[in-house]
Design a protein that fits this description.
Elements (H helix, E strand, L loop, with lengths): L8 H8 L15 E4 L31 E4 L5 H11 L10 H12 L19 H4 L7 H14 L5 H15 L63 H16 L3 H11 L4 E2 L8 E2 L10 H8 L3 E4 L4 H4 L12 E4 L13 E2 L1 H8 L4 H9 L1 H21 L31 H8 L3
Antiparallel strand pairs: 1-2, 3-4, 5-6, 6-7
């Protein structure tokens, strides 16, 4: 997901001060434990667990379904703190929910089912290499906004906090209410990126908005990128393959789940050219859940533009001009003045309308917002839990009876519930 948000340095400093008083320790009650049920899909069941011998990040438990604590009342204070943080009139469109949603999506969307690497477990964006992924530009603001919450409740891992913040953001904006399953642990250092057994992590796991499309040079007629007969961007089939197989298929999502994730996720927030290279919001009301993304994509007229499309400035829609070298669709026409809000679609959005495998699901969600809400909630929960459902090189859940390892900061599956506060503090210093 490429939507990003911006803030001035002054606003960021003000945000970091929110909720930072009284660093009360996070002391969970004994968590209610249960075994993770068998996955509804079989895409992971056919895989063999990655080899872990000799890997410094090997799983302490080798079972395919490690024990995971179910959220209990001890998380209520954190939820309340996140709700107090969520509304911020000084931040973009007045809420941090889209920013936290993107943080959770991008921390989870690196998962690779074949190797067990990536995913929501680890909070790797705290370290320079993963943070430097171009698709993660601007997410340092999201992490900074959440730092006071982490300081106030040091016992929750960064990995869990990022996911919980996105869930709370969805709830307060009318989105699906997703049951939170804690138990993620944080990487103690950056060595996970080059784990010898798994082959390590790589850039390119997150969606790229124009990958494999026909190249375009700024200043050239942007309509030259379009197929004259269909109005689609030349090479869109390759981009569709990238989205379907290289990104979401790699994690185990089918066409319906892909469309649900994009329809539910891209209704929030906006793109900024100084971060993602793209510009503007997808929908008119980008601070609450709806099916507007799906309906607008099918019902509105869309025009392909690039940075040189200065006619947008004349219509009061200059905010929709992407950065040099990038292209996107806008709901504007040259010379046509209207009272429609400024909106855009990425080329990677438009493939949902062009691809015959995606389009039926897009049409279904355009006609049924309630169905989208249910399906998006299920797909987003799956996305944010993938790394926690299969142990691999980076999985560090602790089995019943296993002693805690210093520096790991994990949730225990015994009555003692959580790692010592000193361990959490030591981990915080690795950020």
């Amino acid at each position: 997901m490429t939507a990003t948000l911006t803030a001035s340095a002054g606003l960021l400093l003000a945000a970091v001060g929110i909720g930072g008083h009284g660093a009360a320790a996070f002391q969970p009650l004994s968590p209610r434990l249960r075994r993770t049920p068998a996955l509804a899909s079989s895409y992971l069941d056919a895989l063999s667990p990655p080899a872990t011998a000799g890997c410094p990040h090997a799983a302490a438990a080798a079972a395919a379904a490690p024990p995971v604590a179910v959220e209990g009342p001890e998380y209520a204070p954190i939820r309340e703190e996140l709700k107090l943080l969520m509304n911020n009139p000084s931040w973009d469109d007045g809420t941090l929910a889209p920013l936290f949603l993107r943080l959770a999506w991008h921390s989870s969307g690196t998962y690779d089912a074949a190797t067990g690497t990536g995913g929501s477990n680890g909070a790797g964006m705290r370290f320079a290499t993963e943070a430097a992924d171009p698709e993660n530009a601007g997410l340092g603001y999201a992490r900074a906004f959440l730092e006071p919450v982490k300081n106030k409740f040091p016992g929750i891992s960064y990995s869990d906090l990022w996911i919980l913040a996105s869930y709370v953001g969805l709830e307060v904006t009318g989105g699906p209410v997703i049951p939170f399953r804690p138990g993620r642990t944080d990487h103690p250092d950056e060595s996970y990126w080059s784990c010898p057994n798994s082959g390590g992590m790589t850039y390119g796991r997150l969606p790229a908005a124009e990958k494999y499309c026909c190249p375009h040079l700024d200043g050239a007629d942007v309509t030259g990128s379009l197929d004259a007969s269909s109005g689609t961007v030349k090479g869109w089939e390759g981009l569709s393959t990238h989205v379907r197989h290289e990104v979401f298929g790699r994690m185990g999502f089918n066409d319906q789940e892909i469309v649900a994730l994009l329809c539910g996720g891209h209704v929030y927030g906006r793109c900024h050219p100084n971060f993602s290279g793209y510009a503007g919001p997808w929908v008119e009301d980008m601070t609450k859940f709806s099916n507007e993304y799906a309906t607008d994509m099918l019902e509105d007229e869309w025009t392909l533009v690039d940075h040189s499309s200065t006619w947008l400035d004349d219509l009061g829609a200059g905010e929709l001009r992407p950065a040099p070298g990038n292209r996107q669709f806008v709901n504007k026409k040259p010379g046509k003045v209207d009272d429609e809000p400024n909106q855009m679609m990425l080329i990677s959005d438009m493939i949902l309308a062009w691809d015959p495998g995606f389009r039926p699901h897009l049409e279904a969600y355009a006609n049924d917002e309630a169905r989208l809400k249910v399906d998006f909630g299920a797909a987003f929960k799956k996305l944010t839990e993938l790394a926690a459902k299969r142990p691999g090189c980076l999985e560090r859940f602790v089995a019943d009876g296993a002693p805690p390892r210093p520096g790991r900061g994990m949730l225990r599956t015994s009555a003692t519930a959580i790692a010592p506060r000193a361990v959490c503090s030591a981990m915080a210093k690795t950020k």
